[in-house]
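Let us work through a complete example step by step.
Step 1: write down the sequence.
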Amino acid sequence: MIDLHLQKNNMTRQQLLENLKKHLPDASVDTCADWMMEHRIHFKVTRNRSTKIGDYRPPVHHPNHRISVNHNLNKFSFLITFVHEVAHLTNWKKYQHRVSPHGAEWKHEFRTHLHPFLQQEIFPNDVSTALHLYMDNPAASTCTDKNLYRVLKRYDADSVHMLLETLPQGSLFKVKNYNNVFEKGECIRKNFLCIDINTKRQYKISPIAEVEVVG
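Step 2: predict the structure and record it as tokens.
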């Protein structure tokens, strides 16, 4: 994993750019580097975390703003997640704990930071279209916007996992990061009713859950 602590590591701007190019679209790297230097961000590219894809920590118990993003995201997802966390940073600098973490103030910061990338046409057309819709009401995570999540998944290099909604009914599968084997059932409202083949218990699973076919 990469730990980009500019002051501690005495990293030059060129070294920073070279590291960021591994994870971000080329045309976005300069702007992201500028933010990191301006706000003195301690940035980490972390292992895959099942509970979150990014994180922001204000300089309360340590001297720097801290941002982390999961290493396994494709470059477009990585950029959107980084922008999401930078929006938390600038929102905290303005309001600290006086506003909701994902309230109107954060939504404004997120739109402001993301807009230049949309103008530069950094994203493919399908991602750009989904992002414009998402920006009407940005959520706590891009994963909660099913349309945007579906579109971003098209650019993942992971050839093993797919979305549950793409499997035929009756398929056996494992949910990513879990060992239980399920049989896909019918769609009930927004989710699929699936059966754990060992316990016979039923579970409602999201159509955009990442799964691996068994057998």
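Step 3: interpret the result. The domain at 162-213 is CATH 2.30.30 (SH3 type barrels.).
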